[in-house]
Amino acid sequence: MSGPLTVIDMHTGGEPLRIVTGGYPELPKGTILEKRSYVRDNLDHLRKILMFEPRGHADMYGALLVEPDLPGADLAVLFMHNEGYSTMCGHAIVALGRYAVDQGLVQPGEHVTIVNIECPCGLVRAEVTMRDGTPGDVSFESVPSFLFARDKGLTLGNWGKVSFDIAYGGAFYALADARQFGLKFGRDPVSAFVDAADQLTKAVQAAHPLSHPDADDLAFLYGSILTDGRDAYSDQPTRNVCVFADRQVDRSPTGSGVTARLAAMHARGQIAAGQERIFQSIIGSRFSGSVASVTTSGPHQAITANVSGRAYYSGRSEFIVEENDPLAAGFLVR
Question: Which residues participate in catalysis according to the annotation?
Fold first, then answer.
């Protein structure tokens, strides 16, 4: 590391986003997935410096802006977390939509500013609402998303038989009703949800190989989402918690997770195109979501989802590494 790493910190619904503004070397040209592979294989020490303690924490999340490859993209982004690099992140899209307007990366519109963001899963269109030249709520339309597997079951430890779906919303998730684990939102500690979701993720990874029609690099289970079971359409909020990567807990309702839930709901006939649901996180923050369109993804009946939230700034930092610091590379304490 030849110089300091500079970042701007934001959060969406309480979920952090550390945006790298300087300190990374220039990346080779190529597709977004090739850039993702290069950063993973050659620059992963920088991810650990930014995400891990003493500069970050086990639930930190980051974004590295890179040169776009797709025509029409205003910017491109690689997402990072405590385990590696994800393919889609809705809370980051919401934050980056506002960030792009504030930093002059796009020409602002009068009422709405469009920001086309190239992600590892594809091009995502964000719409930033404008009021007197100031950005407000940000919504995005997802990549084609689908129910991959329905009503699957596994036996998990003390919990016995657990049923779940697997759905794709820019990343693959196992979706399960938390009540099967004896868990209730607002009553049980977050650690109990983490233990249950982590065991489900590991079991599904071992039992259910995944595939994606666009790229093999997308075909991995990112995590599990435990819900309150209120999937059928209602004007009442539905609550969930997403546990992803290495037991990382999303403080927001999870943009790609909301998308995956909407894809599963639509496939089950529980929500129609245009119907809006409110999704509530483990800390009570909210995203709104709806089915924007019905489409296909390879052999799968699919949807695109519209998800909306708001992001806020929380800080700006410059990080350095002293040569004689034995803990400079980063560490995690659970």
Answer: 89
